Amino acid sequence: IILKDYELISEWVAKYIHLKITNSDHIVIGLPTGSTPIGVYKNLIKFKTSFKNVITFNMDEYIGLSPKHEQSYNYFMDNNLFSHIDIDRDNINIPNGIAIDTEKECIEYENKIKKLGGIDLFLCGIGSDGHIAFNEPGSSFNSVTRVKTLTSETISDNSRFFNNIDEVPKTAITVGIKTVMDAKEIIIMANGINKANAVKQLI
Ligand code: PGA
């Protein structure tokens, strides 16, 4: 679906998610971070969408950043969505980037998604190199939640949020391509000229 500008994309997706949530007794949603979904989150807050019956799973988290770090995805989600809505904190799932045993964290994350019946709707952004979550090009279609090393393009893209490129974590916990593809429904949002090539390959 091609829409005129970022505002319209954000409104369209937010209305879609709002309807899905309000028409379900129980729904599991996958959520991204990044600049792309911010408009959707703003709209969901504006619509006063009730998240009482929603369980969320975020796509990824940097390894080494505590939830309190301003560039962690835990912090991002709290700031941009969770602290503004009525979600039960126990229903929020984000990989723990400072888990002592990251392998165990990945397995438990994937298992929890399965135990809750899978993801009903996965909202995704896309990187300029085509990555979905932190599944960089070359990631297996059978991949599940695991540790990934970020490509130099992603590290460079994300350095705009840090004081300098050396501060950008080099690894992350990410859901896999299979984790995303197993969702009953997927929305991938893309905005801006730097995403054009990735979108072209996608469709
Ligand atoms: P962006 O990131 O929304 O900040 O462009 C998307 C992504 O890297 O997946």
How many distinct beta strands? 8
Distance N terminus to C terminus?
Answer: 11 Å
Strands side by side in the biggest sheet = 4-2-1-5-8
Q: Catalogue the ligands.
A: 2-phosphoglycolic acid
Order of helices and strands: HEHEEHEHEEHEHEH
Q: Please summarize the sheet with the most strands.
A: 5 strands, parallel
Helix and strand composition category? alpha/beta
Query: Which percent range describes the beta-strand content?
Result: 15-25%
Low-confidence stretches: none
- Average of the residue pLDDT scores: 96
**Rg from alpha-carbon coordinates:** 16 Å
Q: Give helix % range.
A: 25-40%
Number of helices: 7
Subunit arrangement of the protein: single chain
- Principal-axes geometry comes out as globular
List the helices and strands and how they pair.
Layout: H1 6-22, E1 27-31, H2 38-46, E2 54-58, E3 60-62, H3 73-80, E4 92-93, H4 102-115, E5 121-124, E6 146-149, H5 152-158, E7 171-174, H6 177-181, E8 185-188, H7 196-202
Parallel strand pairs: 1-2, 1-5, 2-4, 5-8
Antiparallel strand pairs: 3-7, 6-7
Helix pairs in contact: 1-2
The structure holds 2-phosphoglycolic acid.
2-phosphoglycolic acid (PGA) binds at residues 34-36, 125-127, 131.
Question: What descriptors fit this protein?
Answer:
about 200 residues, five-stranded parallel beta sheet, about 35% helix, binds 2-phosphoglycolic acid
